[in-house]
Amino acid sequence: MALSGRRRYRSVDYWPGFVDALSTLLLVIIFLLTVFMIAQFLLGREVSGKDTAMQRLNAQIAELTELLALERATTRSSKDELSSLQANLATTQAERDRLKAEAESGAARADAEGGRTAALTAQLDQEKEVTGRALSQIELLNQQIAALRRQIAALEDALNASEARDRESSAKIADLGSRLNVALAQRVQELSRYRSDFFGRLREILADRPDVRVVGDRFVFQSEVLFDVGQAELNEAAKPELDKIAAALIELAAEIPPDINWVMRVDGHTDIRPTRGAFPSNWSLSSARAIAVVQYLVSKGVPPQRLVAAGFGEFQPLDTAQTEDAYKKNRRIELKLTER
């Protein structure tokens, strides 16, 4: 069948400025990635340190809570003891007053009760001393409670400050991630533009071939265009078509900036019927055919790092019917320009 001639393109040398712009963009992306990695590292350290600090704070709060409960219990006990002592003191004072009144009523009786009054006075003095000690202990406990409250307030302030730093770091990381996503989306759009240009060239090159179709973002060759039945060696009729594809790929490789990681993926597919001959499975036949196409393109000057060969056997059919037309449609080689 007749083949359409290749279109000759006149190019204007925009390359130096284009390279400068892309180099600047690459430096910006590398810088953003570096900042993102540093931020992730610092955030990891800060979060780890915060977890450790939180564990220590929780342990201290638990310990302080237990101590506070103990001190409150001691305070209640001391207050109860003080109330008891005060009651005894009132009783003793009342008894002393009664004895004094009785002593004034008669000297003889006063002499008899003198010893008892002295004993009660000594007991009263002793109880006053105990009461003073209890009051001192209560004052000390109140001071300790106040100190514990100050420590708890300081711990709460430290926890709030740590949470504020965590929120600020999360906001910074979210902003950095958003910027990186925008940069990556721009790269994907740029590769899509080159893919569209390349497929436009292939359509012009292969416009007169009814056995070459466009399916989505892939060019599909029927296997019979390139290989004999059951074979993985390119036939002579296929090589002129592959020469045109190789020339288009070489031109594309010169146009796409080197920092865009793109590849031309060559996928081999077979029908569902088992193979015969040298290949033990459809998978091995489809892989061998994809490799044969890649090797031929490399022999024509296409950079090998821009090519990928993959075999899918019968496991991704275009038509699941078990007819000759479906079998023919499923025996194919697909070309897809994609990211590496």
From TrEMBL:
Listed PANTHER family = LIPOPROTEIN YIAD-RELATED (PTHR30329:SF21), STATOR ELEMENT OF FLAGELLAR MOTOR COMPLEX (PTHR30329)
Taxonomy of origin reads:
Bacteria, Pseudomonadati, Pseudomonadota, Alphaproteobacteria, Hyphomicrobiales
UniProt keywords, alphabetically: Coiled coil, Membrane, Transmembrane, Transmembrane helix
Write out the coiled-coil annotation as residue ranges: 54-102, 138-165
Q: What Pfam families does the record point to?
A: OmpA
Q: What is this protein called?
A: OmpA-like domain-containing protein
Q: Name one GO cellular component term.
A: membrane
Q: Which organism is it from?
A: Hansschlegelia plantiphila
Kindly give the PROSITE patterns that the UniProt entry links to this protein: OMPA_2
Gene3D superfamilies xref list: OmpA-like domain
The transmembrane segments are: 21-43
Which InterPro entries does this one have? Bact_OuterMem_StrucFunc (IPR050330), OmpA-like (IPR006665), OmpA-like_sf (IPR036737)
The residue ranges of the OmpA-like domain are 215-340
Tell me the superkingdom of the source.
Answer: Bacteria
